[in-house]
């Protein structure tokens, strides 16, 4: 029997695998949360599919998303990244990634982990929106608005409410699997 999935992921096997194995599963480890922050910030203005197809290139280019290393990137490393055709070569986003790695660590120090900080916005458990169809899935919510504003206040870049909400979906802070999706039923 064919699995019924959220309609957005039926483009190809890469998208289906991402939907089936990652999207919407609660993530509490800081390393993976940071990876998604990087990927989501690069996605701003682009399609998630574009980012997903370049994910392994991003992983190699950004030292396996090691925020401690990224926080100390030099001007030479920025220029190296700007010459890398495997990633999105947007200088503002590359520089934002470095800033975000630095601010990420400041938040870790304040809250014990970035996970403690970010999951505090949803009281430590996923919000279940119970969308019937893709039309019922919002692009932003009050929570993403508040979180976005707080991230920006703390100095993070490319963290608008739409980006933040996509991050919340990706890391399982919200469950937006549609009613008919086999993962909703699980």
TrEMBL record:
Q: Which domain of life is it from?
A: Bacteria
Q: Which UniProt keywords apply?
A: DNA damage, DNA repair, Hydrolase, Metal-binding, Zinc
Q: Which Gene3D superfamilies match?
A: Hypothetical protein, domain 2
Q: Name one GO biological process term.
A: base-excision repair
Q: Which InterPro entries match?
A: Adenine_glyco, DNA-3mA_glycosylase, DNA_glycosylase, Tag
Q: Give the catalysed reaction(s), semicolon-separated.
A: Hydrolysis of alkylated DNA, releasing 3-methyladenine
Q: Which GO terms describe its molecular function?
A: DNA-3-methyladenine glycosylase activity; metal ion binding
Its Enzyme Commission number? 3.2.2.20
Determine if Zinc is one of this entry's keywords: yes
* Binding-site positions, Zn(2+): 6, 19, 177, 181
What PANTHER family does UniProt report for this protein, alphabetically? DNA-3-METHYLADENINE GLYCOSYLASE 1 (PTHR30037), DNA-3-METHYLADENINE GLYCOSYLASE I (PTHR30037:SF4)
Function recorded in the entry: Hydrolysis of the deoxyribose N-glycosidic bond to excise 3-methyladenine from the damaged DNA polymer formed by alkylation lesions.
Tell me what this protein is called.
DNA-3-methyladenine glycosylase I
According to its UniProt entry, this protein's organism is Chryseobacterium geocarposphaerae
Q: What is the lineage of its organism?
A: Bacteria, Pseudomonadati, Bacteroidota, Flavobacteriia, Flavobacteriales
